[in-house]
Design a protein that fits this description.
The chain has about 110 residues and is of the alpha+beta class. The protein contains two helices and four strands, in the order H-E-E-H-E-E.
């Protein structure tokens, strides 16, 4: 009987740690009917004092959109289904590396 609370606590801790290390952002809605052109990936850095989820989400979107515009210059593009993960930090803990990947969708227009 004693192992159940310990097991539950261990699982809870793993879930909490995993939720802090990765994120999903701008998921494609089922009603969104658009052409998916492909995927793009990028690496970006964020200062340790600005590592809020909203900051990481915004930087991931901006970096991925810049990559998509380079990869698909003839299209009006946007990014959906962004997934990011934290990578290495520098020894002083000031900057952290993030990797992001997202789907490139074709927007109306060009």
């Amino acid at each position: 009987m004693k192992r159940k609370p310990e097991f539950f606590l261990a699982v809870l801790l793993i879930v909490l740690l995993a939720s802090c290390a990765t994120g999903k952002y701008m998921e494609m809605k089922p009603a969104e009917r658009t052409e998916i052109l492909g995927t793009v990936q990028t690496v970006f850095y964020i200062s340790g004092s600005y590592r809020y989820r909203s900051t990481v989400n915004t930087q991931a979107y901006i970096s991925l959109l810049a990559e998509a515009q380079i990869k698909y210059p003839d299209y009006n593009v946007d990014i959906r289904d962004i997934i990011w993960a934290i990578g290495k930090g520098d020894p002083s803990g000031n900057n952290y590396e993030y990797t992001a990947i997202g789907k490139v969708i074709k927007m109306p227009g060009r």
